[in-house]
Amino acid sequence: MIKNYLKVAWRNLVRNKAFSAINILGLSLGLTCSMLIILWIKDERSVDGFHKNGKQLYQVYERWISNGKPDASYPTQGLLADELKKVIPEIEYTAATDYAAAPGTQSTFEANNKVNKNSGKFAGLDFFRMFSYKLLQGNAASLLNAPNSIAISRNMANIFFGSPANAIGKTIHFENKEDLQVTGVFENIPANSSQQFDFIRSWIDYVKQNNWVHNWGNTSPETFVQLRTDANPAAVQAKIKDFLYCYADKDPAVTMELALQPFPEKYLHSNFSNGKVDGGRIEYVKLFTLVAIFIMLIACINFMNLATARASKRAKEVGLRKVVGASRSSLVGQFIGEAMLLTLLSVIIAITATTLLLPAFNGLAGKHLVLPVSQPAFWMASVSLLVVTGLAAGSYPAFFLSSLKPVRVLKGTLKFSHAATFFRQGMVVFQFALSIILIVGMIVIYRQMNFIQNKNLGYDRENLIYIPIEGELINKYEVFKEEANQMPSIVDISKMRNSPTIIEHHTNSISWPGKDPNSNVSFADGVVGYDFVKTMKLQLKDGRDFSKDYADSASYILNETAVDKIGYTNPVGKQVTWGNHPGTIIGVIKDFHFSSLHDPIDPLIVRLDEKWPWGTILVRTRAGKAKDAIAGLQNICKKLNPKFPFTYQFSNLELANLYKSEQVMSKLSDYFASLAILISCLGLFGLATFVAAQRTKEIGVRKVLGASVTNIVTMFSGNFLELVGMAILVAFPVAWWAMNNWLQNFAYKIHIEWWMFAIAGIVTIIIALLTVSYQSIKAALSNPVKSLRTE
């Protein structure tokens, strides 16, 4: 019996090649998309899941309420980690971390006549006790407990010393100014870690090199804690809530609190709203989970529609089988089996396609995904997917065909109930509603990304190059600037502690005459060189730039937001004190964006320090002369700083890195939306085939009575446009709601406009007309004599 069913299934598949190809193609596309999305989702959810102490690991974040408005951020005080460990008994280990170089740049190392750049950070001595980064050499308990100690990765150990074992105890030269002793070697950081680094330096050195950490009003490092296994996180959170007031005076105007976030959750939940963790990459995980489910539903609906469209050709087969004694269950089993066969072929094709597409998908998504074919769980999941998809796709056609009455079908009077017709049409409406939502999403995401890339940030980001201050450039910056300014391709040069898009350091140690003692405002702060405003092409609202023509060592420049916070009406010439350093405001610059457009512009205060020992040189080149400028700058750096490889970064590229995740999501959305539309078109084609088969005699009668081909094509297409119209009515409100929520993640965003929906509707209508045109024209051109012939 089973052998006979298989023969029948295979013959039907081979006999109806076009039908089988469309069905297999639709299912294969759906399965391939779903597999890629599932692999991506699995990888996203696995990030930071390998830490053995993950359940006890937490990140501390600071929450404050100022003027009734709550807010929060991850930067904390430099001494917070050590103090938490001393005071809170439920906390077993703590570690603070911060960049070892300006964000976006790398540190230069030298050993054994080899020079290389690597990324890393400073970290507290418990760092390797808390996080499960595999140590190849060294003891986690004593790895970072001495000054000038450093732990390096296997990759660094191989580059400089040949092997991890050879690295231990050796000296490595850091930034041409410090000798560090290698006290440990760790395995290269896995791709599924949110923390990526090549080395870890002792926190003792960080505190020694940054005196500002002793001021509890300054924030920059991130703080991590590991609770004891018997600790209650809620109780610990209650204990640390007002912890800062043990070291800073309580301000009636500003409520400051500390809170805990489980570390394994941070990667997916890193946004704040109203002072609490709210969303992040988890929104994309949820979105693509729904996309995967919907794409599979669309593919299964296509199967149902196409199988039902073939029902009229198999109705007599069903009738004859019933007449000779076939039970309904045996017929259901046969048709489910045929669906399983098609699904099996689709799964095989999908696995092959996924394997072939993974390298390109990894390049697009920035991942290292692999199809886990060696894991039994993968094949169990594939079999489950085969069974579920086969049942979902084949159940409706199987039960529908097996329910046909043999007397009616053998008399050639196969008709379908209104409920069956409504169900099929509803599925097409659902398909196209989803497609319209995805098209609107594509348009909104594209427009927002274009808005970000082209928005006036308040400075000219074109022809702006960043060069890290390192090695001899620290002491020879003046010589570098003098020689570079003589190049015709260079317009202006200045320097900055960080870079214009990464000013993360904040302080609340800003005061001024008449300041409300109950007011506490956090300022972003920058340290820059002469001609900063000129080089950046910032817009001066009032006053002037830092200049050698003046004694500006005790002068400050503020942005508009800072002036508004202070409350000065004519700020130039008035006094401001930063910590213990009173100074005069010499200029006010118009607000410019120095962080992601996800965030509003903070108050900014900038001071002059040409001797600041690290950061970024800002070089403004002439338009069209970037290549000449880079070549000249490279020659100067080789002469002045021979031990350090010349590196640079274009301002536009650094800015693009801030929105890397959004760019990836935008591209993935485009591809998946396009595939969903393609699969939906296959479903519409299936329904068009079904309707054409059902209305053959009607079309023949209309032609006999004088209807033209145009009349019939218009009538035929009009029915489908009604379905598309209903899909539009369903999709537009949902699309607006979904994309409006997505845009809330940006402090600066576009407005959703009517024309975005109009484009989505028009594109969908055109696609629908093109899809049904083949069947409608074919039906209109058919010979009425054949369609009206009686049995």
TrEMBL record:
User: Where does the sequence pass through the membrane?
Assistant: 21-41, 287-307, 335-358, 378-401, 422-446, 671-693, 720-739, 754-774
Topology in the lipid bilayer:
Multi-pass membrane protein
Q: Where is the MacB-like periplasmic core domain?
A: 20-242, 433-630
Record-linked InterPro entries:
ABC3_permease_C, MacB_PCD, Macrolide_Exporter_MacB
From which domain of life does this come? Bacteria
Q: Which GO terms describe its molecular function?
A: transmembrane transporter activity
Q: Does the record bear Membrane in its keywords?
A: yes
For this UniProt record, the keywords arranged alphabetically read as follows:
Cell membrane, Membrane, Transmembrane, Transmembrane helix
Subcellular location as annotated: Cell membrane
Q: What's the main place this protein lives?
A: membrane
GO CC annotation, single: plasma membrane
Residues forming the ABC3 transporter permease C-terminal domain are 290-403, 672-781
Q: Provide the protein name.
A: FtsX-like permease family protein
Originating organism: Ginsengibacter hankyongi
